[in-house]
Amino acid sequence: MADQTYSPSEIDAHLKDGLTAWHHADSFIQRTYNTSGWKGTLIVVNTIGHLCEAAWHHPDLVVSYNRVTVKLQNHDAGGITDKDFELARKLDETVLWRPTGALSGPPASYSYVKDEK
Fold first, then answer.
1. Which of 72, 69, 73 is nearest to 32 (CA)?
2. Residue 36 per-residue DSSP state
3. What are the distances in angstroms from CA 26 to CA 35, 38, 96, 99, 115?
4. Looking at residue 37, what DSSP letter applies?
5. What φ, ψ does residue 76 adopt, rounded to 5°?
6. 2 pLDDT more than 70
7. What is the arithmetic mean of pLDDT over 18-42?
8. Of 16, 19, 29, 93, which alpha carbon lies 20 to 30 A from 68's?
9. Is residue 4 part of a domain?
10. pTM of the predicted model over 0.85
11. Total number of domains constituting the chain
12. Distance between CA atoms of 42 and 104, rounded to whole angstroms?
């Protein structure tokens, strides 16, 4: 049984609920993460790859020197489903995570993703 797909207006409503950096275009929900350069881009791509493989839900990626665009669609269902929204949230949570407390993180010069939550 295929997953329920959403209409464009339903997709827009879902994106307004905590996924405002994402947009709906060309049958995908998409987001671009701006990175600090090639090293940051590679780290972001590998992070996305790991999460997507673990979820068994595979995006289209557009990879450039200082940015990564993620395009999600449930190819089996032929549209946008709950899997896409859930994975988008997990990607944001992980890619944009910043250490706090005892985990002070690297110096600013080692920052990999420029996006803020």
1. 69
2. S
3. 24, 27, 25, 35, 23
4. S
5. -65, -40
6. no
7. 95
8. 16
9. no
10. yes
11. 1
12. 22
Q: Is residue 29 included in any domain, yes or no?
A: yes
Beta bridge partners of 32: 69
- In a 13 Å sphere around the CA of 117, the CA atoms on its Cβ side amount to 11
Please report whether residue 67 resides in a domain.
yes
- HSE-CB of 2 using CA atoms within 13 angstroms: 11
pLDDT of residue 100: 82
Q: How far apart are CA 44 and CA 36, in angstroms?
A: 11
pLDDT in tens, 33-43: 999 899 999 99
Nearest of 76, 78, 115 to residue 95 by alpha carbon: 115
- Give tens-digit pLDDT for 70-97: 999 999 999 999 999 999 999 999 999 8
Q: Are 59 and 72 in contact (CB under 8 A)?
A: yes
CATH of the domain at 78: 3.30.1360.20
For residue 77, give the DSSP letter.
T
The residue count for the chain: 117
Average pLDDT over residues 5-19: 97
- CA–CA gap between residue 28 and residue 84 (Å, rounded): 9
**56: domain range?**
23-90
